[in-house]
Amino acid sequence: MGLSEAMRTAEAGLYGWFIRTAAVLVGLANLVVLVDLFGGSPVARGTVWGTVSLYEALPPFLAVVLTALLTSEVVLRGFGPLIVSGRFSRRYAVVAGAVCAGGALAGVLLSAVFVVQGSLGSTDLLTPAQRIPAAAYTAVLGAQYGGLLGLLEGLVLAFPLAAVLGRFGRGGSPVRG
Predict the structure, then answer these.
(1) Dist. CA 70–CA 59, nearest whole Å
(2) Backbone torsion region of residue 47, taken as left when φ is above 0, otherwise alpha when ψ lies between -120 and 50, otherwise beta
(3) Residue 122 has what pLDDT?
(4) Are 175 and 91 in contact (CB under 8 A)?
(5) What are the CA-CA distances from residue 93 to residues 39, 159, 161 (Å)?
(6) How far is residue 45 CA from its own chain's centroid?
(7) What would the pLDDT profile of 16-33 be if each residue is shown by its tens digit?
(8) Percent of the chain as helix, strand, coil, to the nearest 5
């Protein structure tokens, strides 16, 4: 392996790490905002963060992290060369589309988790057999709302993320194009 090949491999690892980390951080930030907006946070319920059980905290956290990693892997494998060597408009479109797809997928998983778990409200009226159809119904709504909010968020977040990704493809030189 020559020096230029080693540099390209290290550069590809760096932008892959950046994409995965950015996806997880965006997903976790969205989880915090959604839980606080819908009153599912321990603070909104009048409890202290330290008293939250692992049963309540782990499933939404895992759903968001898995969604972010899945979306980032699809982007890296399907659009990796386009991200590094493409023009700004192409990187922008890929990042905006990835955030939209991640939002839709996270909407499906989070809404299903919250209904089955009963985190976002009283599901005492639902039997366990009724929670599955309710989770399926809310998963469809979650995909729609998550996709729409992901698109809106992606249009804003794609500007700085596409610019940073352009620096990886040009060896740290200023982004042009």
Answers:
(1) 16
(2) beta
(3) 54
(4) no
(5) 33, 10, 11
(6) 26
(7) 888 889 889 998 888 887
(8) 80, 0, 20
CB 162 within 8 A of CB 91: yes
Alpha carbon dihedral 90, 93, 94, 96, in 10-degree steps, equals 150
Residues 6+ apart with CB under 8 A from 5: none
> For 63-119, what is each residue's pLDDT tens digit?
889 999 999 889 888 887 777 767 888 889 988 999 999 999 998 888 888 777 766
**What does the alpha-carbon distance between residue 88 and residue 150 come to, in Å, rounded to a whole number?**
20
Joined tokens for residue 128 = 């366990």
Alpha helices in 46-120 (DSSP H): 54-85, 88-117
Write the DSSP assignment of 88-107 as a string of letters: HHHHHHHHHHHHHHHHHHHH
- Predicted local distance difference test score (pLDDT) of residue 50: 56
φ/ψ bin of 91: left (φ > 0), alpha (ψ from -120 to 50), beta (otherwise): alpha
